[in-house]
Amino acid sequence: MNGTDVTDLAEMPGDWQRALAVVAHPDDLEYGCAAAVADWTDAGKEVVYVLATRGEAGIDGLAPDVCGPLREQEQRDSAAVVGVDTVEFLNHRDGVIEYGPGLRRDIAAAIRRHRPELVITLNHRDTWGGGPGAPWNTPDHLAVGRATLDAAADAGNRWLFTELADDGLEPWDGVRWVAVAASSTPTHAVDAAPGLERAIHSLLCHRAYIEALTDEDPEQYVRSFLTATTGRSAERFGGRPAVAFELFAR
């Protein structure tokens, strides 16, 4: 495949300094794009994580009041592996996040607080992958992904959520792109090779969740999953394993 083929994935823009990643649950970023985050923080860029929930409804054998704090700590540990120091939680309820003004306001507040040029979220479409038989996406991912795309504009509109300015969060219209990880229609990518080992160890930090999810050895499961997902985009990215994104410019 040559470099002019329209199906090739372009390099993600690099002329930015601050990024904000907004997802629904602990582990969403580790399954989606931690190798890219590791590469960015290595380059001196600042990345902040914001999670709508603590994933408290995610493990059948653990009650939410036990599961939530455990998964929060796993998320903080996993973020640190790829150079992310700031992890915030918005306290929406796991499994029943509702798209609407409240969610948009909370994400717009985070954007105003951290003033990113790049905003990252996860697949907001009905399915994972295209075509018949593709796995159904979850309501939480749909709500948070869509609200993040909308909040990137909301954050710059002083006449929306005026109470944020009263709290000292002035409008921020500096978001230049929103990048959607795990999209079925990616347009851009980051070379996953430099950050892949750290991405594997980052996902492994979610051990309680992984052990509840599969009987496979956790490291074997994580390594196989991330090697496969980053390898699927290689043909469209010069043979390099890649973290792919659908990039929306603003």
From TrEMBL:
Stored Gene3D superfamilies: LmbE-like
Keywords recorded for this protein, A-Z: Zinc
Record-given protein name: PIG-L family deacetylase
Alphabetized Pfam families for the sequence: PIG-L
Source domain of life: Bacteria
Matching InterPro entries: GlcNAc_PI_deacetylase-related (IPR003737), LmbE-like_dom_sf (IPR024078)
